[in-house]
Amino acid sequence: MDVSRARPRPHAPRPLVPVTVAALLASALLVLGSGCSGDRRPAVEDGATTTRAAQAPRAANELEDDYRKVVDDVLPSVVQIQTGDELGSGVVYDGKGNIVTNAHVVGDARTFRVTTANSENVLDARLVYSYPEQDLAVIRLDDVPAGLKAASFADSSNVEVGQIVLAMGSPLGLSSSVTQGIVSATGRTVTESSSGGGTGATIPDMVQTSAAINPGNSGGALVGLDGRVIGIPTLAATNSGLGEGAAPGIGFAIPSSMVRTVAGQIVEHGRVTDSGRAALGITARTLVGDDYRPAGVAVVSVEEGGAAGRAGLRDGDVITALDKTEITTMTTLTEALAEKRPGDRATVTYLRDDDERTAEVTLGEQ
After folding, report:
1. Is 175 part of the annotated catalytic residue set?
2. Is 319:350 a contact under the CB 8 Å cutoff?
3. Nearest to 105 by CA among 228, 231, 7
4. Is 104 annotated as catalytic?
């Protein structure tokens, strides 16, 4: 599966006329109720049937009420971020004007124009710090408007497959848009494309969702029905069979616990002080074999005192496995390390002068 970032896009036309959840649910109930049967006898409703029929619209109304409450509570915390001619999204992190978003949304910019969901006034903001390794960044408003509302971030370890979620942001420039889906999977490790301005980050523990994630959603909020943010929408899968077209219903969000960890450090220290990301302490490149296929990761240089150096690896070694994971490219090595933590021990299999060797490595920090 190829994964592309949900790129910010230029201004888009006005949004289409929305259809309420009640209308959609009512249509669904009408279709369900109009089915035909071979039994021509008059319908006889017992007490249980009548009760169920009465409960159906009430349940639909309750679900719509839940949706509306979440939108009313959270949408004021989701902002639109403009960098030049491109747009992305962000989430208000605290009452001091700090906004968390994706690193690929801010790009190389240092100043931004921000619009909140409940105001058309454009606010100026500046970059605090960008951390491309996790595709996260924090920007700060120059002047904090009255009533700016910070989002509430959930513990993403409690996110469950199947729970209903809403994605909020500015897809295709359509500000304050909301789409609905479920959590499709958790714990995904995904590598972002490095082309077209992407960071090329490999991000572990991502939340997969069926909620629509489109260009401009990046940096917005993926929210549970309790009104808490469970992730920052970042990536949309692409189907190589459809060219670069998005694969419908497959999007990914950085988990909220990681967002809090990274953004919290940036707000407090102005940078990331503890990434929690394991590293070998090498500069390397993908090695292509005689058959022109990736054959491992060649070590270009070893950081003095780094994890690989302490374990005896040298320039010119070719890494072919990390524990039981075969390593053929830089991407496979990065993804294998993303599953580890600094201080973990790992077995590195490598070639030196065509001899296969192994080394026990205590991983360092990226």
Report:
1. no
2. yes
3. 7
4. yes
The closest of 114, 110, 108 to 82, measured between CA atoms, is 114
Catalytic residue among 135, 184, 256, 317: 135
> C-alpha dihedral over 125, 127, 133, 136, to 10 degrees?
-20
pLDDT tens for 341-365 read: 999 999 999 999 999 999 999 999 8
Tokens of 135: 């595709």
Quick check: pTM over 0.85?
Answer: no
* Sequence-distant (≥ 6) Cβ neighbours of residue 234 within 8 angstroms: 5, 6, 102, 104, 135, 192, 203, 206, 218, 219, 252, 253, 254
Query: Which of 218, 256, 257, 317 is the catalytic position?
Result: 218
What pLDDT, in 10s, does the model give residues 313-330?
Answer: 999 999 999 999 999 999
Domain boundaries, the chain: 1-8+53-274, 278-365
The CATH number that domain 1-8+53-274 falls under is: 2.40.10.120
**Listed residue (192, 224, 28) closest to 105, CA to CA:** 192
**Is residue 135 among the annotated active site residues?**
yes
Minimal CA–CA distance to 274: which of 139, 366, 156, 189? 366
Which amino acid belongs to residue 234? T
Output the CATH code of domain 278-365.
2.30.42.10
Regions of the chain short of the pLDDT cut 70:
1-56, 195-197, 239-246
